[in-house]
Each structure stands twice: as structure tokens, then as C-alpha cells.
């Protein structure tokens, strides 16, 4: 939940680094840089959700998810009305009829790239005939 919330607020993931090894290091150490424009309550919640110490991480403590629901950042949320679906969404994207509409998602160059190395023989392919 912390990673998703951070990404929705910042527009990029919390442990991001272009160098994959630095990315892994950031994840392992729990090193996060918080933008200055983050609300202080949002930052406080994220610090408690993104801590690498499981004994201190929100959602994993004695009160469970109640720690999250009762956090000041969510003070204006009426959880009962939300659960009953009595609160209108602030934005409803236009969706084309027929299902499978992905028009609201960005396209990236890597979508057209083929993945895997198909130039060499798979010596283990016989072990996974249906894969």
C-alpha cells in the first residue's frame, strides 16, 4: 500500500533509481526520498508503511489495518460510506464500450520489443512441454 500511495502522489516509485543495483540497494535499505511537496501527514503515513522493519510497519502491528484507517492523513475519509459505495469517484475516466479499453494508459517503446533470447536452443524445453 505504501508503494502504491507514494507512486500515486509522486508519479514515480519510492525506491526508483536508473541503476538497477542502486534500485535494489534502495529497496533493501528502505532508503526513500520524499518530495518537499508531500503533505506532512502523507509523509508520516508513508514512512510508517514503507519502513523495512516489519516490527514497526503499519498494517503489521497489533492494530493491523486500523493503524492505517485511523491515520490523520485519512481523517476526512468516511470509511463506512466508502464501503457502502455512497461516495462518488472524483474522476471517472471515459471507457469505450466492448471491454479491453486501454486508451487511458500510456504506451511505451518496450511494448513492441520481443523478450527473451530465441536464437539458441532451449536445452530444458523438453522438461516443460506445456509451458
Secondary structural class: mainly alpha
The end-to-end distance, rounded to whole angstroms, is: 32 Å
Mean pLDDT: 89
Count of helical segments? 5
Largest sheet: none
Taking pLDDT < 50 over at least 5 consecutive residues as the criterion, the unreliable ranges are none
* CATH superfamily annotation of the domain at 1-87: Transferase(Phosphotransferase) domain 1
Describe the structure concisely for a colleague.
The protein is 30% helix and 0% strand. It contains five helices and no strands.
Description:
This protein is mainly α. The chain has a domain at 1-87: Orthogonal Bundle (Transferase(Phosphotransferase), domain 1), CATH 1.10.510.10. It has five helices and no strands. Helix 1 packs antiparallel against helix 3. The longest helix is centred in the middle third of the chain and has 11 residues, at 40-50. The model has no long low-confidence stretch (mean pLDDT 89).
Note the topology:
Layout: H1 2-10, H2 20-29, H3 40-50, H4 66-69, H5 79-83
Keywords, separated by commas or semicolons:
131 residues, mainly alpha, Transferase(Phosphotransferase), domain 1, 5 helices, 30% helix, extended
